[in-house]
Write a structure and sequence with these properties.
Layout lengths: L1 H20 L3 H36 L2 H8 L2 H33 L1 H16 L7 H32 L9 H22 L6 H10 L1 H13 L6 H23 L5
Helix pairs in contact: 1-9, 1-10, 2-4, 2-10, 4-6, 4-7, 5-10, 6-7, 7-9, 7-10, 9-10
Length: about 260
């Protein structure tokens, strides 16, 4: 798995030079700009609503009144730290819902970008057809809903575990790895269809090569540390890097 994660990381650097060399910026910037705008708007509403939700839970459960009554600094610190961890878990859950919505909307563009990347690398053209594009879109939506259901099950479980003292402190890290895996899963699937992997086969394939998915998702979220520009570049770079990582893994005889 570690070698696959390294390949996924290296593929982002290759994707940057590949995009510049072949002037693919319009396929990066246009969907990236839409993503950044939606992300900013969604993040604003998340922060305001999540703070209110956590405050309501503490007041409804009597926790706030109890903390005010005992006035013990270390217990207050523990609950404050737990509150931060809980908010991080909620933030990742928001990311997962937002991500699937955007992947469904941007499926045609991302599918084409992945195809274009492999076409240039392999030196061959993939015949375009509206029927195939429609199939790819339906497949992408179907996979997105499938992953959304499974990830939601995991995230709800993690949410309740995050309410447990001490145990809840590591839950954001667990949630982050799950989020990275399913994000990378979606990006890799754009290439799986061209390698004649059916819906079930693609699920098994990514399950056997978790490192490629996790590594792709990790860099995707690291790009979010670079405000606005990183948010714009993240989706297109992730698709291109996922395609390159599959080809690199194929050359290294790790897959296929």
């Amino acid at each position: 798995m570690l070698k696959e994660i390294v390949i996924a990381f290296q593929s982002y650097f290759q994707a940057h030079y590949f995009i510049m060399k072949h002037k693919l910026w319009k396929w990066i910037v246009i969907p990236g700009l839409i993503y950044a705008i939606l992300f900013i708007v969604g993040l604003y509403f998340f922060l305001t609503s999540s703070n209110a939700a956590i405050r309501f839970m503490m007041e409804a459960g009597g926790i706030k009144a109890w903390l005010d009554k005992i006035q013990t600094s270390w217990i207050s610190f523990m609950f404050l730290f737990g509150q931060i961890m809980l908010q991080l878990v909620l933030l990742l859950f928001y990311f997962s819902l937002f991500k699937y919505l955007f992947l469904i909307i941007g499926s045609p563009v991302f599918s084409y970008l992945s195809e274009k990347t492999e076409s240039i690398l392999e030196g061959k053209d993939f015949a375009f057809s509206f029927s195939q594009l429609a199939k790819d879109i339906v497949r992408g939506i179907r996979l997105a809903f499938r992953n959304l259901v499974w990830q939601s099950v995991y995230m709800v479980t993690i949410f309740f575990l995050s309410l447990v003292p001490f145990v809840g402190w590591i839950m954001p890290l667990v949630a982050l790895f799950i989020e990275c895996y399913y994000l990378g899963f979606s990006m890799l699937d754009y290439s799986s269809e061209r390698h004649r992997l059916g819906y079930i086969q693609s699920i098994k394939f990514v399950g056997n090569h978790k490192g490629l998915a996790i590594g792709n998702g990790m860099v995707f979220y690291l790009l979010h540390l670079l405000p606005v520009i990183g948010w714009m570049l993240a989706p297109g770079y992730a698709v291109t890097a996922a395609t390159l990582s599959l080809i690199n893994a194929k050359k290294s005889k790790l897959i296929f």
